Amino acid sequence: MPPAISLHGADAVLIVGDSERNCDLFWATRFRAPDPFIYVATADRAWVVVKDLELDRARQQVRGAEVVASSVYEKRLGDDSPPTGVLAEVLRERGLRRLLVAADFPVGTADGLRAAGVELRIAEGGLFPDRAVKSTVEIDAIAGAQRAAEAGMQSAVDALRSATIDGDWLVLDGEPLTSEAIRRRIHHTLLDHDCVAHHTIVAGGQQAIDPHQAGYGPLRAHSLIIIDIFPQHTPSGYYGDITRTFVRGTIPPGGQKLYDTVARAQAAALGQIRAGVDGHTIHKDVAAHFVAAGYDTGERDGRMQGFFHGTGHGVGLEIHEAPSLSRRACVLQIDQVVTVEPGLYYAGLGGVRIEDLVVVEAHGCRNLTSFPKDLLL
Length: 377
Known about the structure:
Blueprint: E1 12-17, H1 23-29, E2 37-41, E3 46-50, H2 55-61, E4 66-69, H3 70-77, H4 85-93, E5 98-101, H5 107-115, E6 119-122, H6 136-162, E7 164-166, E8 169-172, E9 175-176, H7 179-192, E10 195-196, E11 201-204, E12 225-229, E13 232-233, E14 242-246, H8 255-272, H9 279-292, E15 298-300, E16 303-305, E17 312-314, E18 321-325, E19 337-340, E20 343-346, E21 350-353, E22 356-361, E23 364-367
Parallel strand pairs: 1-5, 3-4, 5-6
Antiparallel strand pairs: 1-2, 2-3, 7-8, 8-9, 10-13, 11-12, 12-14, 15-16, 17-18, 19-22, 20-21, 22-23
Helix pairs in contact: 3-4, 6-7, 8-9
């Protein structure tokens, strides 16, 4: 049986893509392939159409769908078939004329299908809204990725603590300690836990006031350093996510107050999370907390400063997925997994972000993160 879907008047759901990048496709089939294939699902039946080189593996691994070889249709259609010929024939053979697709469905494929008389409808809110609610197996996979993220964070902390202070700079093994060097240590640790990571953030000082700046070059002592690690567990495909902020040396003026303000906001947000609460309410309360503490948000000297990102986001097969704790209304449900990561960023001072990963429960949340929140190393 395919996963539960709402067809909204369509005959079937259609996905065309590779399941290494299309998370809906992997979630529906549990089959990971680097090349595009076809997935079609009605309310009670589903089909996966793959090339011959993937046929045996697909028959072993695909969940909830019948596996069909595309070569069956290629032989039937001949060499002059258009690029969408096989797909159009698959749909024609099953009498499927109205298809529900995601908003990012390939435009070339869409044009070919429409030329063949197929009607395409865009799914509002995604093809599989139930993907946001995690099973026990999925939560366990996310928890495993989070443990790997914490191991990576510990390797970063070990490097910072082992570094000596030479004036304004950190030195390790006789060399300047750089963002790149710490990132390599983190990534090596993650590999030991069957995880990979991209865009890991190790950003100090002024670099850290750009929340998505990965960080580069030598790291300063006596300066706020943000480390954000979001690895993907290779066997399962699920992510973890953790952020901590550190200082090696002496906390800079204003740094402790900034950190304490973010820590209190995060603690309050964690205390609000439970099923039935609107994520927008949590985000709005965090923003109000910062304003009340004297930290305004807005553009200053040509760049955004203050609190200018969401309080949190869902984590699963994607590092950013539903639900959200942000400006959009989004009521939390039991067994959703979300980050809680408020932050403040100011030129001349630096940035602070603290992030935990939690499971939404009926009357609160279960924190999958146990790493200490120590500013000074």
